Amino acid sequence: MNPRLHTLKRVLSSALVVCTLVLSACDYDVPITANPTRRVDARLLANWTLVSPLKSEHMRIRRYDDSNYVIAYQDGLYRAHHSDVADLPLVSVQEIEDQQRKFVYFAWQLSDDGNRLTIKTIRASVIPKETKDSVTVAKLIETNRANAQLFEDSFAYTRDPK
Fold first, then answer.
1. 3-state secondary structure of 148
2. What ranges make up the beta strands (E) of 18-122?
3. What is the pTM of this model?
4. Phi, psi at 52, each rounded to 5°
5. Would the CA dihedral through 81, 82, 86, 89 be positive or negative?
6. pLDDT: is 54 or 148 the higher one?
């Protein structure tokens, strides 16, 4: 394959993943779980950069308290807590600067060396936006745990050097 065509294909694929994330993230009225399911994981507290040939996006994750994170991403501030359901490492992320304070649901995975954070959004077609209580959200995730359509494509961040 022509190297320039191959590079263009990689760039377009990355752009599609990033656009899919932004456009498909569904805003919910409630978190996955009403309360955090575990304490803050110190391995996540870092500055992260999106792995993409298109552009560089940065995310800073900090401890807010023992069970909550504060995340600075692009020009927004978010609060997040672990919402593990059906043995899946999930987080409920809430935009705190918006009056509506909607939530977005993510699955996350940290590489063994702690330098790569992979995130996937939960697909809105599996958890409808109209779902209004955390118990129903958790049940839908449990029911669809083995469903290949539960998550959107993943995207990855690398830990910034200290």
1. coil
2. 46-50, 58-63, 69-73, 76-82, 90-95, 103-110, 116-122
3. 0.81
4. -160, 135
5. positive
6. 148
